[in-house]
């Protein structure tokens, strides 16, 4: 299946005892130290005044790393904006790898260490491509690109997150992008996931 | 599946004009990619479609320690002077009069999350901006916007910018009449008009319904129309008082009265005449003096008026001048729900607080305008479609953006207000305080603007948080003061017309630079931006919250009864006002207060290293270069059509590209050639072909003959071969047009 125009993954924080503002200096340092391999980091955008939405963005050329507070569920949202991969499967692999790498960087950052923890047993995956992956049938699964994508994501994710991992389509508003929820009760930790993804890469 | 693009999917939903415009732009992008277009021409081309540069797009960024290269791919590829192709940019989207429908909001929200960072930003001229957009995404973005009737055309560059209009027009209690349909007709008339393509600088129009309020801000615009009714032959007649030559920027000018009363049927020819005078006599080389305000100042308003009147007499008649008037009687906004009343029911104190600041009772009983107070003018994609649904439920299509970076819902039936408030609050848009001291305006500043010196948005966010926290205890006298912040002297945040205004600058302390804000006091928002404030001195950025506290406390202590902030500043004068901020003007050394050396929301040690060359002024390129470029793009499209096995389309495009090129050439001598192919060819023939001006030393008239032949004997059923030949001929013809223009000189010799 075709790689979507953009693809995003959000992992949620289980502990989050940190003011979102403290990500600003952290992200500036990441840019300075060029900590993300294979991605060009550009700038930090501060949207904390918005409250319910993206709060602090590390804007990159290929991808954005976002401390996202939408619906009161803080998490690290990784949005792959370009060069995700040759097809959906490839794009998903790269997006997950980079998102988990971002999670690891966040958890281990010198200024943030101990103040937050990301869980791997669930994530939200969004296909930001209303041309190739419309969200038209509103979650009933009848539209084929959406159900094909769901089948593809289920296969790929079960192989990484454990056989009991499930991918459900979120019955969101038709104007929103096509969105899936990953539940992975026996998901391994970030390092193990990265190892597995890295091997397949 | 991947071969079908938005262009195909939306083919039936875009107007032909807009669709074609976007194809041309895509063609120009392609030519630029192949190095076949001059970088300045391309820059101006993209600016005129609202595709702006953004900070760091020269590939340099200061990380707090040193300036570092941002290693984009294909560093040699550019989209304008010193502007890298792959660096993300800003897209400005024109919103005439701020009018937005729920369907438009839906699409704006969708393009924001697919092409930008999921945030829509309302500007100080009712536009919408998206940031961090890749240029490759812009044609599809434009198509999706075009499918709901939005164009980005002439949103930037040296063109007629968004035509603003009071957000209360039509429902306002003090207006003379509703200026909306006039501003719409004005915007439509000038969009892409031949006479507005050769300005040395941008041209900003505004419409206002009354003199005393602020909404239209006509006094600070290049041209401003203020609604008036005059008795003519014993009957009331609609028209406008017309102002010209206002503007902010480093040298703010109050507009001058061009005409005390211009009747409605004359408002379009008047602006056309003004445009011609501006295009002909306005400064082109020195962009710092190229706005019309400098021309008006140089000539004096009397002489300017005389020239405009002379010009008016020579304009060839245009039916469009008055055509829109036929639709005026039907123009009316329809309320979505029947009028109702609040009837004194008891509401929460939260609601009451919001009601006090965010609700305006319309002239029409039973209805109100609700202001959705957007922090820093921002809202997320999700909030945008949720807001669209709220609009659908309560007000239908009656939504507008405002110059204070908010959105208003008009025609809310009064008894709906409590529910509407709850729904806005649920999506995070229920902040009270619209139009008060907490509702701070700020330009993009160092966040995204290439010219930004200090962080206007960082400061605005900080002040908003602090003032909101203590809003309950703020003295009545200061609650409605306006704070407006620009990141540099260019004044995009409109600081000159606020009570307390700031613009970014910098001062040195030891070996370091410290972000500062110049303090401007006592500007007037009312009376259509009636007067500009006094610059009293610059203070370190980090002291501004305290500076605001100090100034407002002094005002509260010293004001005599009923004295406004402007009157107080006028009374105490510049010297004493400076005395108030003097204690903040001492600069600590880096070792004493290191945090003074970084800006709000940006921990990097402050530097001016990131300031680039602004694109606000656009590129000054000749009218000919601007007009020949779409011809080249069309010839290119013709090649694509041929590749796609569509010889008829290829033939039509090749012919059209020749006509465009010929027209561009003819217009170097004769601006009013119009659009008719017969006329263009006839003028081309008499001016350039018969005179042999077009002739090549070796080929003589051969290339010109291509156009004459195709025009006189079109091919009824073009095949691949004939289309191919015609494309070749078109390319040679366009080349010859370029050559001729550079031989003949290419100056716009106006001949009317
Ligand atoms: C030398 C360059 C520039 C000058 C002199 C300039 C000047 C101005 C002025 C005077 C205004 C507002 C008042 C009015 O309506 O007349 C304005 C509006 C604005 N400017 Fe600039 N500006 C420049 C560059 C920029 C840049 C580079 C950006 C950001 C990318 C920017 C963003 C804005 C915005 C968002 C507005 C509200 C305008 C709208 O929506 O049309 N300006 N500019
Ligand atoms: S005032 Fe200066 S910093 Fe702000 S947007 Fe305008 S040019 Fe940029």
Write out key terms for the chains shown.
heterodimer, A: 201 residues, eight-stranded antiparallel sheet, 4 helices, 29% strand, B: 752 residues, Alpha-Beta Plaits, 5 domains, five-stranded antiparallel sheet, 23 helices, 26 strands, 38% helix, binds protoporphyrin IX containing FE, binds iron/sulfur cluster
For the record, the count of structural domains of chain B works out to: 5
Overall pLDDT confidence of chain B: 92
Round the Cα radius of gyration of chain B to an integer and report it. 27 Å
Percentage of residues in DSSP E strands of chain B: 15-25%
Share of helical residues of chain A:
25-40%
Q: What is the tally of beta strands of chain A? A: 8
Please name the fourth-level CATH homologous superfamily of the largest domain in chain B: Sulfite Reductase Hemoprotein, domain 1
Level-2 CATH architecture of the largest domain in chain B: 2-Layer Sandwich
Any overview of this molecule?
- The complex is a heterodimer of chains A (201) and B (752).
- The mean pLDDT of chain A is 93.
- Chain A contains 4 helices and 8 strands; from the N terminus they run βαββββαβαββα.
- Chain A has one domain.
- Chain A has helices at residues 23-33, 88-108, 144-161, 190-200; strands at residues 6-16, 41-46, 54-60, 63-68, 75-80, 116-128, 166-169, 178-183.
- With 201 residues, chain A is of the alpha+beta class.
- Chain B has 752 residues and is an alpha+beta fold.
- Chain B folds into 5 domains: 6-146, no CATH class; 172-330, Sulfite Reductase Hemoprotein, domain 1 (2-Layer Sandwich); 349-426, Alpha-Beta Plaits, CATH 3.30.70; 441-597, Sulfite Reductase Hemoprotein, domain 1, CATH 3.30.413; 620-751, Four Helix Bundle (Hemerythrin (Met), subunit A), CATH 1.20.120.
- Chain B has a 5-stranded antiparallel sheet. A 5-stranded antiparallel sheet of chain B has the order 7-18-19-16-15.
- The longest helix of chain B has 25 residues, at 720-744.
- Chain B starts with 5 loop residues before the first helix and ends in an 8-residue tail after the last helix.
- Protoporphyrin IX containing FE is lined by residues 52, 90, 123-125, 127, 129, 161-162, 204, 220, 247-249, 443-444, 449-451, 490-492, 494, 614-617 of chain B.
- Residues 443-445, 449, 451-452, 456, 486-488, 490-493, 614 of chain B line the site of iron/sulfur cluster.
């Amino acid at each position: 299946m075709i790689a979507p125009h953009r693809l995003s993954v959000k992992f949620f924080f289980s502990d989050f005892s940190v003011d979102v503002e403290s990500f600003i200096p952290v992200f500036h340092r990441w840019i300075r130290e060029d900590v993300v391999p294979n991605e060009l980091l550009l700038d930090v955008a501060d949207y904390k005044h918005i409250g319910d939405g993206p709060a602090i963005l590390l804007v990159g050329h290929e991808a954005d790393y976002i401390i996202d507070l939408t619906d009161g569920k803080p998490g690290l949202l990784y949005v792959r904006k370009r060069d995700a991969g040759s097809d959906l499967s490839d794009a998903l692999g790269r997006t997950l790898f980079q998102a988990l790498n971002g999670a690891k960087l966040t958890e281990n950052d010198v200024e943030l260490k101990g103040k937050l923890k990301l869980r791997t047993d669930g994530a939200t995956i969004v296909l930001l491509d209303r041309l190739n992956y419309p969200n038209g049938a509103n979650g009933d699964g009848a539209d084929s690109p959406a159900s094909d994508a769901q089948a593809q994501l289920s296969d790929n994710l079960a192989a990484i997150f454990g056989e009991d991992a499930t991918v459900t389509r979120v019955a969101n508003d038709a104007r929103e992008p096509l969105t899936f929820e990953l539940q992975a009760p026996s998901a391994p930790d970030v390092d193990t996931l990265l190892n597995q993804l890295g091997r397949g890469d | 599946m991947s071969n079908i693009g938005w262009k195909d999917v939306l083919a039936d939903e875009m107007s032909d004009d807009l669709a074609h415009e976007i194809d041309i732009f895509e063609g120009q992008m392609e030519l630029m990619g192949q190095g076949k277009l001059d970088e300045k021409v391309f820059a101006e081309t993209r600016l005129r479609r609202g595709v702006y540069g953004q900070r760091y797009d020269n590939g340099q960024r200061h990380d707090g320690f040193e300036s570092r290269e941002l290693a984009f791919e294909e560093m040699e590829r550019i989209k304008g002077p010193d502007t890298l192709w792959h660096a993300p940019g800003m897209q400005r989207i024109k919103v005439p009069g701020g009018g937005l429908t729920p369907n438009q909001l839906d699409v704006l929200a969708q393009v924001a999350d697919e092409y930008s960072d999921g945030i829509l930003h309302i500007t100080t001229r009712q536009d919408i901006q998206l940031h961090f957009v890749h240029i490759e995404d812009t044609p599809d973005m434009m198509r999706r916007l075009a499918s709901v009737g939005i164009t980005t055309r002439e949103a930037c560059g040296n063109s007629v910018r968004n035509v603003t209009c009071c957000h209360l027009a039509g429902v306002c209690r003090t207006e003379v009449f509703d200026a909306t349909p006039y501003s719409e007709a004005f915007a439509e008339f000038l969009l892409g008009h031949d006479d507005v393509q050769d300005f040395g600088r941008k041209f900003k129009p505004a419409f206002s319904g009354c003199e005393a309020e602020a909404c239209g801000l006509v006094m600070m615009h290049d041209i401003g129309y203020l609604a008036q009714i005059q008795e003519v032959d014993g009957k009331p007649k609609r028209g406008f008082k017309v102002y010209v030559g206002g503007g902010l920027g480093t040298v703010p000018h109050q507009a001058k009265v061009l005409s005390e009363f211009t009747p409605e049927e004359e408002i379009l020819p008047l602006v056309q005449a003004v445009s011609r005078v501006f295009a002909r006599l306005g400064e082109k080389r020195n962009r710092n003096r190229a706005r019309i305000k400098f021309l008006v100042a140089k000539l004096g308003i009397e002489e300017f008026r005389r020239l405009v009147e002379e010009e008016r007499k020579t304009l060839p008649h245009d039916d469009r001048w008055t055509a829109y008037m036929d639709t005026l009687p039907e123009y009316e906004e329809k309320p979505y729900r029947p009028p109702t009343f609040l009837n004194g029911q008891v509401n929460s104190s939260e609601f009451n607080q919001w009601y006090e600041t965010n609700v305006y009772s319309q002239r029409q009983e039973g209805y109100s305008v609700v202001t959705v107070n957007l922090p820093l003018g921002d809202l997320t994609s999700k909030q945008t479609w949720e807001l669209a649904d709220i609009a659908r439920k309560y007000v239908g299509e009656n939504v507008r953006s405002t110059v204070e970076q908010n959105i208003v819902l008009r025609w809310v039936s009064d008894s709906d207000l409590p529910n509407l408030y709850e729904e806005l609050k649920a999506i995070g848009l229920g902040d009270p305080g619209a139009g008060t001291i907490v509702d701070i305006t700020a330009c993009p500043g160092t966040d995204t603007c290439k010219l930004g010196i200090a962080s206007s948005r960082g400061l605005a966010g900080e002040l908003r948080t602090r003032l909101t926290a203590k809003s309950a205890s703020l003295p009545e006298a200061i609650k409605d003061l306006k704070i407006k912040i620009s990141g540099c002297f260019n004044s995009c945040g409109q600081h000159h017309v606020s009570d307390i205004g700031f613009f970014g600058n910098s001062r040195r302390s030891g070996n370091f630079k410290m972000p500062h804000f110049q303090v401007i006091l006592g500007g007037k928002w009312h009376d259509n931006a009636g007067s500009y404030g006094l610059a009293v001195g610059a203070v370190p950025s980090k002291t501004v919250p305290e500076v605001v506290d100090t100034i407002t406390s002094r005002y509260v202590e010293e004001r005599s009864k009923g004295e406004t902030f402007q009157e107080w500043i006028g009374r105490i004068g510049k010297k004493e006002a400076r005395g108030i901020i003097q204690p903040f003007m001492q600069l600590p050394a880096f070792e004493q207060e290191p945090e003074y050396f970084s800006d709000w929301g940006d921990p990097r040690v402050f530097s001016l290293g990131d300031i680039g060359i602004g694109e606000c002024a656009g590129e000054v390129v000749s009218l000919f270069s601007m007009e020949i470029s779409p011809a080249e793009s069309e010839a290119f499209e013709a090649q694509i059509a041929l590749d796609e096995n569509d010889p008829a389309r290829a033939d039509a495009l090749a012919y059209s590209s020749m006509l465009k090129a010929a027209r561009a050439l003819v217009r170097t001598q004769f601006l009013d050639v119009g659009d008719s192919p017969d006329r263009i060819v006839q003028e081309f023939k008499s001016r350039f072909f018969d005179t042999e001006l077009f002739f090549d030393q070796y080929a003589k008239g051969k290339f010109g003959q291509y156009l004459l032949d195709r025009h006189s004997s079109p091919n009824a059923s073009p095949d691949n071969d004939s289309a191919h030949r015609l494309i070749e001929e078109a390319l040679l013809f366009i080349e010859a047009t370029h050559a001729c223009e550079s031989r003949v000189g290419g100056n716009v010799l106006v001949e009317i």
